[in-house]
Amino acid sequence: MRSISSEEAFLLFDKWSKNSRVGVNFGRRDAAVNFYLRSATLEVSKSSLLLEVKELSMTILHFDESVVFSELTREDVKREFASLHPVNPKFQSCVGAKFANQDFCLIFQE
C-alpha cells in the first residue's frame, strides 16, 4: 500500500475516464455491508466522480479534504479484508479512499 495525494488520485481517475470503464466498491470498515458498481463510465470534476452504468444507475462520490488516498495492490486488498471476509479481487491495483468516518471506497480500472 502506498499513500498518494488527492492530485495523484484524480490524475489516475482522469486517465481512466478517457479509455476504460471502472468499478467501485464502497462500504464501511466495521460492517460487512457494501455496494459496488461495475462497468461504469467515469466523469471527473474538481473533487467528485460521477459514475454511470448505462441507464441503470448514476452515483456521485464527493471527496473532501479529509479523505486519505492510497494505491493498493490485489494483495493489499486481500490482507485488509481478511478479518472481515476473504476476497479475491480481479483487479491488479486500485485507488483506495478512506473517509474521516471510516467509510472506504475502492476504485479500480476494468
Question: Would you identify the CATH architecture?
Answer: Roll
* Helical residue percent band: 10-25%
Order of strands, widest sheet: 1-6-7-8-2-3-4-5
**Overall 3D form:** globular
Class derived from helix and strand content: alpha+beta
Percentage beta strand = over 45%
Specify Rg, calculated over alpha carbons. Answer: 13 Å
Summarize the structure.
The chain has helices at residues 6-19, 74-81, and strands at 2-4, 22-28, 34-44, 48-53, 57-62, 68-73, 93-98, 103-109. The chain has 110 residues and is of the alpha+beta class. It has one domain: PH-domain like (Roll), CATH 2.30.29.
Written overview of the protein:
- The chain has 110 residues and is α+β, with helices and mostly antiparallel strands.
- Helix content is 20%, strand content 47%.
- The protein has two helices and eight strands.
- It has helices at 6-19, 74-81, and strands at residues 2-4, 22-28, 34-44, 48-53, 57-62, 68-73, 93-98, 103-109.
- It has an eight-stranded antiparallel sheet.
